[in-house]
Design brief:
The protein folds into two domains: 78 residues, Ribosomal Protein S8, Chain: A, domain 1, CATH 3.30.1370; 277 residues, Dihydropteroate synthase-like (TIM Barrel, Alpha-Beta Barrel), CATH 3.20.20.20. 41% of the residues lie in helices and 15% in strands. The chain is built from 14 helices and 13 strands. The chain has an eight-stranded parallel β-sheet, covered by helices on one side. Strands 1-3-2 form a three-stranded antiparallel β-sheet. Strands 4-5 form a two-stranded antiparallel sheet. Strand 7, helix 7 and strand 8 form a beta-alpha-beta unit. The longest helix has 18 residues. The protein is globular and about 60 Å long. It starts with 11 loop residues before the first helix and ends in a 14-residue tail after the last helix.
Length: 407
């Protein structure tokens, strides 16, 4: 009986498994990758020069005979298909007459080919081998899930150390709730809440600490106390001074997409193309960060699940997280206990959404489409993600495959 197996040309682990079964020598594997069709690339927001360049492919004037273009009724969109090497050649030729198209294609190819790294001070964190976890410490009275539980700094520090012991790779400390409908907190009050917690954690752990803030004054004080990362849910839209504060330090940052403010974001959110608009927002935030002196290697991106999105939009974003690889930065995602899970599981209270949360985390890790997951329940998340990561990377196929042990 013939066994037919579908192999995705965009999933390197699948290809390596196929190469092992073929007993293809290592030197020949890269050339085999170049011959494998195909990439299917949805292009949107195409300008006139981009459309003209792609239209000329039919005449083979650019020497990219293997690249196909499918047009629909939307003039600014096209579906591009072809081998990696042909798409790379197409991008190189587009640099003169369609530079924006060239940049988009080259960014996509880089995102597929390499795992990103994150530099925080003297640390360099490599992604790709496993999914990392960021444990949440909310020192607020009104956070949607655990507001009021860790207002006492000693309890907050103890909780953070418990998260580290459970396997957190990062800690994220927040002194202002940004749940739907939350009111802005004065910077002095935000600092009053987080400063003793930062001091306590920094004295007892060397795990990278993130501070969830939109404000330059809070970020500056947090960095002086040893914060490694500033997690801005506004994507540098709230406080224009914040990028410069981070840029003057060795700290990193995470820029997140949000439509509107916490007071307005869940009041009928609308998009023409949710993925394209989030990509454009994050690209703009990245450029703003780099212009302020923040090295690209110190930046993460977050599509902002639940921040100005419907349940259906959140699900589509999670399904297409790999689209954000085109930005070339590590992807952070937070689904933990969020309200979109209620539409699927009927669990009304955030504290009841653990199973739904773990389902979302496992799906993301199994796809390998995010690098850091922001979670409340680290111990449970660690186990779910470990299983999903192991399934994604499994390669023991028997004696005719190269030997491989999965730890």
């Amino acid at each position: 009986m013939i066994c037919a197996r579908a192999i995705s040309a965009d999933r390197r682990a699948d290809l390596e498994l196929a190469f092992a079964r073929l007993r293809l020598p290592q030197p020949l594997r890269e050339s085999a990758l170049e011959r494998l069709p195909h990439l299917q690339i949805l292009l949107t927001e195409l300008g006139a020069a981009d459309r003209q360049f792609l239209a000329e492919l039919d005449s083979h004037s650019h020497g990219a005979a293997e690249v196909s273009v499918v047009w629909g009724d939307e003039p600014g969109a096209a579906l591009l298909g072809g081998r990696r090497e042909e798409v790379q050649e197409l991008a190189a030729r587009a640099r003169l007459t369609a530079p924006e198209l060239a940049g988009a294609l080259e960014g996509l190819l880089r995102g597929i080919a390499s795992a990103p790294v994150l530099r925080l001070g003297s640390r360099t964190l490599a992604f790709g081998a496993r999914t990392h976890l960021m444990g949440v410490i909310n020192v607020t009275p009104d956070s949607f899930s655990d507001g009021g539980q860790f207002l006492d700094p000693e309890l907050a520090v103890a909780h953070g150390l418990k998260l580290v012991a459970a396997g957190a790779d990062f800690l994220d400390v927040g002194g202002e709730s940004t749940r739907p409908g939350a009111l802005e907190v004065d910077p002095s009050e935000e600092l009053r809440r987080i400063v003793p917690v930062l001091r306590g954690l920094r004295a007892k752990t060397d795990v990278p600490i993130s501070v969830d803030t939109r404000k330059a004054a809070v970020a500056e004080a947090a960095i002086e106390l040893g914060a490694d990362l500033i997690n801005d849910v506004s994507g540098f839209q709230f406080d224009p001074a914040l990028p410069e504060v981070v840029g003057r330090s060795s700290a990193g940052c995470c820029v997140m997409h949000a439509q509107g403010s916490p007071q307005t974001m869940q009041k009928d959110p609308r998009y023409r193309d949710v993925i394209a608009e989030i990509l454009a927002f994050l690209e703009s935030a990245l450029n703003r960060a780099i212009a302020a002196g923040i090295a690209k290697e110190r930046i993460l991106v977050d599509p902002g699940i639940g921040f100005g999105k419907t349940a259906g939009q959140n699900l589509l974003i999670l399904r297409r997280l790999s689209d954000f690889r085109a930005l070339g930065r590590p992807i952070l995602v937070g689904t933990s206990r969020k309200s979109f899970l209620q539409a699927l599981t009927r669990d009304k209270l955030p504290s009841e959404r653990l199973v739904g949360t773990l389902g979302s985390l496992a799906a993301i890790a199994a796809a390998g489409s995010a690098d850091v997951l922001r979670v409340h329940d680290v111990r449970e998340a660690k186990e779910a993600v470990a299983v999903a990561d192991a399934i994604r990377q499994a390669k023991q196929g028997g004696e005719l495959f190269e030997s491989g042990q999965n730890g």
